[in-house]
Amino acid sequence: MRILKVGHSPDADDLFMYYAINFGWVGNPEIRFESCALDIETLNLKALQGELDISAISFGVYPLLALEQCLLRTGVSFGAGYGPKLIKPRGKNLKRNFKVALSGAHTTNAMLFRIAYPEARIVYKNFLEIENAVLNGEVDAGVLIHESILTFDDRLEVEREIWDIWCELNQANLPLPLGGMCLRRSLPLSVAITCEEMLTKAVEVALHNKPLLSSMLQERNLIRVDSKQLETYLNLYANEDSVSLNETQLKAINALFKIGYDHKIYSQILSVEDCLIPTEYKDFRTQ
Length: 287
Fold this sequence. Notes:
There is one protein chain. Helix 1 packs across helix 7 (189-208) and helix 1 (12-22) packs across helix 8. The protein contains 11 helices and 11 strands. Strands 1, 2, 3, 4, 5 and 11 form a 6-stranded mixed beta sheet that branches. The protein has a 5-stranded mixed beta sheet with strand order 8-7-9-6-10. It has helices at residues 12-22, 40-49, 108-116, 130-135, 148-151, 162-170, 189-208, 210-219, 227-237, 247-262, 280-286; strands at 2-8, 31-37, 54-58, 69-71, 77-79, 85-89, 99-102, 121-124, 141-144, 156-161, 176-184.
């Protein structure tokens, strides 16, 4: 049996889309996944260093690791009219060089934020620490991600939606590419295809058994929000559009890559279609 290390974040949508495998609802006799839950920037860094076989990542980091990792079609999270939020204390006016806490240098929201606010003074924190950093005055503002966008303190208010920055930059009313999954190119292609199929099946099974899986995650204290907030959050980020990349989502990722190139964040423009696993290989082998 081949044992593969898989990284995912501890936020609700990643857990929901992956845990059908941990619960034994989806499996393969030749492959076993060993999972670990880490914050998204740690996962981005581990992907850059090639420390995991499969990992959740921010789409914003992918062009930096494209030579070593391919993108998976499944387990994706996009914003459609919503996404990370730049928050500040109520009534506070932000200066041009305001101090802000972001969840990691390689996250998609950090990339878009830096383009929109080039004079801001950035500090990077674990996403769970950002709200308190704003409340205690350590920073002037912060960008909230994951479930925090639903539950932040009433003493805070939204200065700007990252979604609005995205819309201004892409000018095409495309969904905001936030998170996806990548897989080491050094794995055999047949194994890579099987892994993608397993992970896709896990998302499908999760959606088909949403009430049961949600309840099981909450019973095990794996989720940081109540049942109503969990349902709201999953409707945003773990839904039918998470199963497999569609044409609109592919266009959105390509738009993100071009924006990064135009602002000198990436050294070349990638086409996402060239970064996916060539699943037709499976058909060729069986002919």
